[in-house]
Every structure is written in structure tokens, then in C-alpha cells.
């Protein structure tokens, strides 16, 4: 928003008490809310993000991807200038979902050239810090059980982006999370997307990129007797 980007984005929440999307009927695509329709970022989007609170309603991540893809299709149909269409899924993969039509969904995503990226607790990487994986909620960073003893002392001393330290206990991934991560990997790989952990995403978001402005020269003609010199100047602010 501060870069005045022409990119357009939508905010679609799943697991909400209310249902507001074009695919919803009495039995399908419930608890999914299109909180901000596809458009350039503005303060209304910021206000909607500030309202987000954890809920107790069912959160089907596959249904959420379908609703997001459908919203992209509806809002971009007949319009030009869209270089790429992406769905960014933010999940801890901890809730049940229905993947019975996954093959059809993947084929539809590929036909529409929609890329699915995902931000989650862990995607199975084996790194030195074990990615400080989050297992239960996006605001509760956790480790997986592997190498738990080796990192027990360092986990609590690892600062977050706001300078606080993590004091969360380590928990293994649940069976539901393992299943969810496997399905998400399939979706992301099929659409040639990317996977990020919560920590990686926070690191990226903590870096502010200033708006890129094309330098514009001021042109002059300097004349010395019969000699004319074409010059230009740039002003750095």
C-alpha cells in the first residue's frame, strides 16, 4: 500500500462464523468470508485485517482455495493487465478438510494459470533451527519433535521480530497437520508455487521496500560562444 503498487489483492477468511462468498449454498463452502474484494490495497483492507480474530467454526483449506480461485476468475475475467494470478494460503493445517475433488480442483487451477503459495508452520525442511515450527496456531511458534533436545535451550532465547523471546513448548505435528501439509505440498507443487514458514514470512514482511521512482532528467543547452553543449541534470532527494 505504501509503495502505491498497482497490484490487486483480496482478503478471504475461512473458519469464520459468517459466510459470504459466491459459491456458498446451504451445504457447501460455508464459513468462508470474502472480507475484501480484489482491488488495490487501501485502508479498508488494513481495517479488515485488524478485525481478524481466531474462531471456532470449521476451516476447510481446500474449500478456501476453491473460493479464492473462483473470486480471481470472476474479478479478472475480461480484464487486461494481469501478469499473474496467485492464491496465498495462510494456514497451520490443523483442521479437517474435504479433498475428494482435489484432482478436479488442481486441473481447474492449472487451466486458469493460478499459482498457489502457502505460509504454514513447517513443510518438512531439515534445517539447523528446525524453523521453530508452529503447530497449533499462527501466533504460537513451536518446534517439531526432531532434534528437540538439541534445541531446548536455544528455543526460548531466540528473539522474535518485535524483540520478544519465544517461551512456547515444543509439540510434534498432529496427524491432521501431517495430512494437511502433504495435501498442501501437492497443490503448491502442481501449480508451481512456493512454500514459506511463518518465520520466513515475518522476515520478508519486516523489510520495507521504498516505492521505485524512475529518475527524470532536466535537460539544458549550455552555450559558450559558438559552442553548444546538451546537458541534463538529476536531483537526488
From TrEMBL:
Residues 156-165 have a biased composition (Polar residues). Residues 132-155 have a biased composition (Basic and acidic residues). GO terms for molecular function: double-stranded DNA binding; telomeric DNA binding. Pfam families: Ku_N. One of its GO terms (cellular component) is Ku70:Ku80 complex. InterPro entries: Ku_N, vWFA_dom_sf. Residues 120-177 are annotated as: Disordered. GO terms for biological process: double-strand break repair via nonhomologous end joining; telomere maintenance. Gene3D superfamilies: von Willebrand factor, type A domain. Residues 2-131 form the Ku70/Ku80 N-terminal alpha/beta domain. SUPFAM superfamilies: vWA-like. This is Ku70/Ku80 N-terminal alpha/beta domain-containing protein.
